[in-house]
């Protein structure tokens, strides 16, 4: 499989190889579930460009479960790395036997520490065992002169073990172990950020934070094309899959595999693109045995703490049906405002939803869609079988696909002007700042003779916005020409309350500073897509 984040992978390889030469920069990689964090790390570990003569990479997933299991897995991982380097491979057996047979003669100090840890575990001294476990990379360096890169996946789970101060202990080790590089990974972004800010903010050994987001449209399209082998889906279908999956590689991989199964088994014809897409979503998202259906049902049970109905799930289901403001959720769910507020806070803490001004929205588009079209329909259905529900699911998905194609076929400026007509005095956060988006009763597109870029003028009462759209990458010259025109013809548009510059292909730093100095709001494709999502419109791909 082609790496979908080559630039980031190259940066990680550079960081690890720099560490091999003595320069350490600890890393924290944060991102939502199924966004591709573990895949990125696997690509790093498998890379043949790493300085393996000078480093040892140890991967540990902090899974929920017994602490003893975590420690034993860590010891086995260390043994595996050491013995692989010596051209032998440990068998999958008791750690004490592995230590005795594989480490004792060649790495006696490491073996001694490992045995001490196992003894602490037997006596229930978990804090001591954890402290010594984190010392192993330092001892390995003493015996091998190879620096350790310790990768702890879902590190926030360390707080759930029966340990007094796991992050405090980790922080002390990070500061004194100059020959161990730490790479911490987490799917709980809100919790992980708090741990990094409060418990792992260090004078020496601080973390560079890398926030992993969804794949962009072009990368998603390439990802799907490289993973679907049975047919050549047109770009619009690839973009529809990307849109509904929110650019999450795992979801797109699952759908790609189902598409290949459906076509190769001749359940659908390779040229029937609509049926191919409908079948893939039906098999994976709708059917009870579908991979995505099972994943989302387990997430739902975790949120509801095992109950089918709770205040949190009532709020969640209300949100999935299009109620995005707290007042709307209160009215829809029938709950008290304080209960809704508490539930929303919990869902944000769990990284299920995110707040933007007066709006709340799902982090995961596909989970929201599953709640609305699968879970809710099954919950209220009295049918013995799923046939009628399956037909409803396919009709709804077909309607969604048709709407996507309709939007896809519209001129870009028309879509943007329609977006401006949807503002309803809403408070929305863009570029880290909260703004009020007043309603407009008149929105029109002007094809100016003095500018290559058409403009959108939006008027509501005494409020007038003028929006300039740049399709190509914005440079200093673009900003200079735009601001020069406004200075030379100040009365052309009347009194403008707000100038907006939309840079769909990005803007360079100097041009951005020039635009800010001219008091322009600068929006990129990401900001436009946030607005489109808040108003239930497909992204611009």
Tag the structure with descriptive keywords.
541 residues, alpha/beta, Rossmann fold, Arc Repressor Mutant, subunit A, 5-stranded parallel beta sheet, 5-stranded mixed beta sheet, 22 helices, 15% strand, globular
Task: Report on this structure.
The protein folds into four domains: 6-212, Rossmann fold, CATH 3.40.50.300; 217-286; 291-385, Orthogonal Bundle (Arc Repressor Mutant, subunit A), CATH 1.10.10; 412-534, 3-Layer(aba) Sandwich (Trna Endonuclease, Chain: A, domain 1), CATH 3.40.1350. The protein has 22 helices and 14 strands. The chain has helices at 6-20, 37-46, 67-85, 95-103, 108-122, 126-144, 166-176, 189-198, 217-227, 235-245, 249-264, 273-286, 291-304, 311-320, 326-333, 337-349, 365-380, 387-408, 412-420, 476-488, 509-517, 525-534, and strands at 26-31, 55-61, 147-153, 180-186, 207-212, 353-356, 359-362, 426-430, 433-437, 442-446, 455-460, 463-470, 498-503, 520-524.
- The name of the CATH architecture of the largest domain is 3-Layer(aba) Sandwich
- Major sheet strand order: 2-3-4-1-5
Question: Could you name the CATH homologous superfamily of the largest domain?
Answer: P-loop containing nucleotide triphosphate hydrolases
- Count helical runs: 22
Largest sheet: 5 strands, parallel
- Using DSSP, what is the number of strands? 14
CATH topology of the largest domain: Rossmann fold
Amino- and carboxy-terminal Cα gap: 23 Å
- Indicate the CATH class of the largest domain: Alpha Beta
Gyration radius over CA: 27 Å
Overall average residue pLDDT: 89
> Beta fraction of the residues?
5-15%
Number of discrete domains: 4
Shape summary: globular
Q: Provide the structure class.
A: alpha/beta
Percent helix: 40-55%
Flag low-confidence runs: 85-91
